[in-house]
Design brief:
The protein is an alpha/beta fold. The chain contains 12 helices and 12 strands. It has 2 domains: 138 residues, Aspartate Aminotransferase, domain 1 (Alpha-Beta Complex), CATH 3.90.1150.10; 237 residues, Aspartate Aminotransferase, domain 2, CATH 3.40.640. Helices cover 40% and strands 13% of the residues. The strands form 3 sheets. A 7-stranded mixed β-sheet has the order 2-8-7-6-5-3-4, sandwiched between helices. The radius of gyration is 21 Å and the shape is globular. It binds pyridoxal-5'-phosphate.
Amino acid sequence: MKLATRMSSLGTETAFEVLARANALAAEGRDIINLGIGQPDFPTPENIVEAGRRALADGHHGYTPANGILALREAVADDILKYRGVEISPERIVVVPGGKPTMFFAMMMFGETGAEIMYPNPGFPIYESAIAFSGAKPVAIPLHEDNGFSFSADEILALITPKTRLIILNSPANPTGGVALKSEIDKLVAGLDAHPGVAILSDEIYSRMVYDNLDHASLLAYPEIRDRLILLDGWSKTYAMTGWRIGYAIWPEALVEGATRLCINDHSCVNAATQYAAVEALRGPQGSVDHMVAAFDERRAVIVEELNSIPGFRCARPQGAFYAFPNITGTGLDARRLQDKLLNEAGVATVAGTSFGAHGEGYLRFSYAASIDNIREAMARIRGCL
Ligand code: PLP
């Protein structure tokens, strides 16, 4: 067989490999605490599950419009108005199977040999992977611990070249839990005035998970970039629906038709029952989201305190998502060796910072989507192990 050379550029998401290794060890009878995988440890709220069941019973078994049923796109538009204060036409919303397809579609649209696409590093690993796969050059936006892993607008603006087509931003962020500073977003948007051909993909999938009374600062709040902004969000994290596979993006008017055509070529539509469940998620009571976020907030305090008590670890307080990203350079081990040691010797699954890009060396990602008892037990094991 002769494969296309682009296959060698495709990366992966190591969290899935860590999950597989943790599961294999657990299958051998080892007691593993999994702080590696990035998904809520809560079940999907029952009213949402019931809406999915009802949709199946009601005969919603066929194809839907490729961009999603109108009732769902209208519910998304109302949600955007409620949480981001911006009126958006449902025509600009394209529903896809999760957060990831929007990334891939954006790379297919903008990426090709000779183009440059910027992405946060450390950042969600699929950005760099999909950019490279498209043939474009991935240009890292380095994120730094000393400003809470917010991006620096000056640093981004200085990296723009005539080849830059797209800038990917992610706040609240995976893997750092960092939240972009409003002042840096203001500065970036102002600076982009001089680069009208550069588009922005803002991954806001953790938008409902911000702490310390912060409001989520959305890129959608800036009318001056709305005709070149792709806003990615979805149900996976907010409603504990990672396995249902549904997400959406708001596309600039000029790109909606292309995004829909990509849907038709790729998956036709998201499965119908899931779309009805997603309507219930947005229109139904939000108490379970509040409850889950409050639980994450409580665990955040515990894990940060515990991590800072481990010799060689230093952990800043993350302000969003459900990840802590301690600096582990004081242990004398590199991130990958420490990840392996903790899994094999302490039975604690974490993900090396380098799984999120070269700038993640010296850090380890902990997901605190786990019970407080498990978090405390994991930290006790790590202290013992080190
Ligand atoms: N964006 C970020 C920043 C994520 O962390 C994730 C999942 O971990 C996704 C997107 C993908 O979400 P989904 O599972 O809906 O494809």
